[in-house]
Amino acid sequence: MSPLLFLAALPLASAFLLEGSSTSYAQFRKWNPGLNGSLELEFKTEQPNGLLLYTDDGGTYDFFEVKLVEGALRLRYNLGGGAQILTVGRDLADGHWHKVQVKRDGEKTSLTVDGETQIKSSRGKEFFFGRLSSNSDVYVGGMPSWYNTKLTLLALPSVIFEPRFGGAVRNLVYSDDESPLPRRQEIRMKDHKVNFQKIEIA
After folding, report:
1. Buried b (16+ CB within 10 A) or exposed e, 111-133
2. Are 165 and 45 a contacting pair, CB within 8 Å?
3. Could you confirm whether the keyword Signal appears in this record (predicted)?
């Protein structure tokens, strides 16, 4: 059975593990948040720092970077009017599951962790995130090494130097601007390094 079929056959409570090494990451299809898309996932780790998720518009200026910083979750993003930062939670590297949601609502963007929400409004007049045709894939846990020689394809080149996330991730779900029904995402089997295992729901 291929790895992709194996993943699809696992129950919803399953998770994938990222070892946090220099080659560890998982790759998912493009997300088109537009003006009203949303994205959510659950993670569990004991490491207080690490890149949890990144996607951008293909290297122009729009990006979403979600990372753990000293046990807090930080969303750094740009919709063209300058970078904004939202920080929610603390002591999240406690080995327990935590639920994260990033939501767009026009000029407003929110970050929610375990029910606690921070919201910011973007500056400027145009708040649309990229275009589906040129947006990057969604990367979880780290970035592919080939970006090291193609930094111009990144709207936030410094993301390549972020420490990688080591821990478990499950239930990555996102809705697109043109298709607001949330859909569970499956890993694209490329040059990633993850392990699959069944994780207890608790």
Report:
1. bbbeeeebeeebeeeebbbbeee
2. yes
3. yes
